[in-house]
Each structure stands twice: as structure tokens, then as C-alpha cells.
Write a structure and sequence with these properties.
alpha+beta, 41% helix, 25% strand
């Protein structure tokens, strides 16, 4: 290669394009969401090609190194990009190296694909450089989008079907009743049941249940409904909750799935809460919700009034797993079943 200014300039643009393609693939590989903030750290990528050109000039002046120029330069570029990724993403060295290698694989594959599609089929050496760059960037963008979609779908599948990823928070969501889950609900020992799927956070060893009675003045009374160990065969469990009422009594049953896939008995009881009348309003969790480490999560809520008066503004809404509004009527109370994890 002749060390002319034009060759060096084209080499600079070549290295710059490759570095930016690698940076874009790093955004996809790391599932980056704060893209604009991360793009501000792309400035060193303008400087790396200058270092690479200087290395080329230095090795060109030493005939013994010309044979190993490609390997030496590739290794140095890998190290520079690794340290840049470590600085930009605040990774450890090995994590930054792994991410850079993954992005580098896609960048090299995409470069090879671009060469095949552009040079071998459509373009020749007389094609303007700007046209080549536009086609290259177009292919790069399409490849990045496909990679992002593939990684996103892969992440969703892994999160929903495996336990490979860390689970930082306990999550509860309601589930539709199947024949297996209906059996669990009947195992709770009551007339009707609600079913929830729980994904326990790493480090959680048990869950406890508690009934809480809230009035316009705040928490008035609470009853422990029992606790269950988290079995070690997996983080995903089913919880069944059933209630039945009669007069001033409330009967309840709670069951937790065991390693063998059946319900564990024992969390059954009877309450005679104040404000219990002939009727009540019922609300239950209806969406996927994280369990607050301090406040727990509301699985279901009953709005009680001894006279049966239940104004709409006083009815507890537990759809989100939280009931924040207190009843305004002095004769109305909210009876909440909450789950806590520890």
C-alpha cells in the first residue's frame, strides 16, 4: 500500500466507519435505552482512527512488522474499543470485552455482507465514495434493527420461560383458571378462588399474608393469616386465595404450590371483622405488579359497611395491587388481604 494522503484519508474514513458501526452494535448488544446520553460518549471514536493510522505508518516503516500488521492492528483496536466500552458503559473489563467481541462479530459479518452485496453485484471502483457509504450505512442500519428485534424477542422469551436472568423484585400477576389451577383453588377449601402467579426475587425465602382493616382514620386492626416457605425448586409459584362469607364471618383459605406441583394446606381461618354486614364490594389484583419490600401487595380488597351503604367513592380499588385512598364514611372500612415477602 502506498502511503499517500488520499490513501491515509480513505483509511481514516474506513476505520471511522468501522468504529461507529461497532458502537451502534454495542448499543444493540447491551440493550441500551438511554441512547442519546450514550451517544455523547462517542467522541473518542473520532480519535481512534488517528491512532490506528499512526500505527499503520509506524508498522509500514518496519518491514518485519508488515506481515503481522493485520493481527497487531486488530488486537490494538479490540483493546481500545474494550476500554472505551468500559468507560462509556461503566462495565468491568471482562464484561466490556465480552460486549465488544459480540458487537465485533456482527460488525465484521455486516462488513462482509456489504462487500458481497455492493462490490460483487452492483458497484465498481468508479462509483462515488458517498454512494458506497450511504449503501453501507443503510445495510448497517437494517442489520442493527434486525439484531435489536432478535435480541428483544430473545430477552422476552428467556425472561418468561427460564430462570437464567436475575430476579431483583418479586412480581405477582393474576392468571386465568385452567383445570390444574382450578384444582389448586378448590384445595384452598372454599367456594370460589382467585389465582396468582408469583415470581419470587432472588434472596426471598418466605412469604406471609395478613388481613388489614383500614378506616377513615387509618389502620385500625390487622390479623396474621400465616406464612409459607419459598420452595427451592424454582422461583415461579401459584398462589390460590378463596373466601366465603356468612353473616358477620369471613372464612378464607390460602394455598401455595409445592415442588410436586400441588397445593400446600394450612393457611385457613375465620375472621369476624368489624363493619361486616350483609353485603360488601369486592376488588382484586388485575395486573402484573411488583411487591413492595415494605408495603407488600394487595391481593384483594373488600369494602365493608354494616348498613350495606357502599358509595362509589369509598369502594376500594385493588386492581393495581395498591389501595391508597381511605374511605371517607365513618361507617365504611376496607378489609385488605396483603402479601409480604422476606
Amino acid at each position: 500500500m502506498e502511503l499517500s494522503f488520499s490513501n491515509l484519508f480513505v483509511g481514516y474514513l474506513d476505520y471511522l466507519t468501522g468504529n461507529f458501526a461497532l458502537g451502534i452494535y454495542l448499543l444493540a448488544v447491551t440493550d441500551e435505552r438511554a441512547v442519546l446520553r450514550r451517544l455523547k460518549k462517542f467522541l473518542p471514536l473520532f480519535l481512534f482512527p488517528i491512532i490506528e493510522i499512526l500505527l499503520v505508518i509506524g508498522m509500514y516503516s518496519v518491514p518485519e512488522l508488515r506481515r503481522f500488521q493485520y493481527y497487531i492492528l486488530s488486537f490494538i483496536i479490540l483493546l481500545m474499543c474494550t476500554f472505551w466500552a468500559r468507560w462509556a458503559w461503566q462495565f468491568g473489563f471482562w464484561q466490556a470485552l465480552a460486549a465488544t467481541c459480540m458487537a465485533g462479530i456482527f460488525q465484521v459479518c455486516e462488513s462482509t455482507l456489504s462487500r458481497v452485496l455492493i462490490w460483487e453485484n452492483t458497484l465498481d471502483e468508479s462509483t462515488p465514495f458517498a454512494v458506497v457509504m450511504l449503501l453501507y450505512l443503510g445495510i448497517s442500519t437494517a442489520a442493527v434493527l434486525l439484531l435489536a428485534v432478535a435480541l428483544g424477542l430473545g430477552y422476552v422469551w428467556v425472561r418468561g420461560n427460564t430462570e437464567w436472568l436475575p430476579q431483583r423484585e418479586t412480581v405477582v400477576r393474576p392468571v386465568d383458571v385452567t383445570s390444574r389451577e382450578s384444582t389448586m383453588a378448590r384445595a384452598a377449601g372454599k367456594l370460589t378462588g382467585l389465582l396468582y402467579r408469583v415470581e419470587f426475587a432472588d434472596g426471598v425465602s418466605r412469604c406471609s399474608f395478613r388481613w388489614e382493616l383500614w378506616t377513615h382514620q387509618g389502620l385500625e386492626q390487622s390479623w396474621d393469616a400465616g406464612e409459607r416457605e419459598r420452595y427451592e425448586d424454582g422461583r415461579r409459584k401459584l398462589i390460590a386465595v378463596a373466601i366465603s362469607t356468612g353473616g358477620s364471618r369471613l372464612d378464607y383459605g390460602i394455598s401455595l404450590e409445592t415442588p410436586s406441583g400441588v397445593a400446600a394446606h394450612g393457611l385457613n381461618g375465620t375472621l369476624e371483622p368489624p363493619y361486616m354486614g350483609q353485603g360488601y364490594a369486592f376488588s382484586a389484583l388485575e395486573q402484573r405488579t411488583e411487591v413492595d419490600r415494605e408495603e407488600g401487595i394487595v391481593l384483594l380488597a373488600l369494602t365493608l359497611n354494616p348498613e350495606g351503604r357502599l358509595p362509589a367513592e369509598d369502594i376500594a380499588d385493588a386492581k393495581s395491587g395498591r389501595v391508597s385512598a381511605l374511605p371517607k364514611d365513618e361507617q365504611t372500612a376496607h378489609l385488605l388481604l396483603k402479601m409480604y415477602c422476606e
